[in-house]
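Explain the record.
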Amino acid sequence: MSVEAILETLPDYAKDIRLNWSSLAAATELTDAQKWGSFVAAAYGARSPKLLQAVEAEAAAHTTPEVITGAKGAAAIMGMNNIYYRFHHLSTNEKYATMPARLRMNIMRQHGADPVDFELWSLVVSAINGCGKCVSAHEKTLLEKGISEDQILAGVRIAAVVNAAAAALDALEV
């Protein structure tokens, strides 16, 4: 099922999600790789298999398999890192921040995509997962690498709308 067909299943009270999705898909603040990678990473991070499958199919028409794989890699590693670093952020024990993570994170160096794009996708998923420490770290790196605040917010808007679509779809399947 296509993304458009899935979004059409949303009731009228979720019309804003459909309209926002269309606007974001047509937006030009991000490159196609950044935009479609963000859609893929967000759908993966929002844990919606049906939506992820449709988004991957649509992304394949706009970008490369390496971008899609890199975006899924960013979502997968952030699924782990967001829990680990959110714990650091929430704990009052400062010693944890000085201790080694002892978690494999090789995908962060060996993803095959543009490193700035991978950083953006990591931010997108971190926003969905609510990890303030990761959001701050990825935002800082993106700004240092020349990504603008407008581009960062474009990625976060994708995260917000994809997450809302996934939640609405999940609610309909109950």
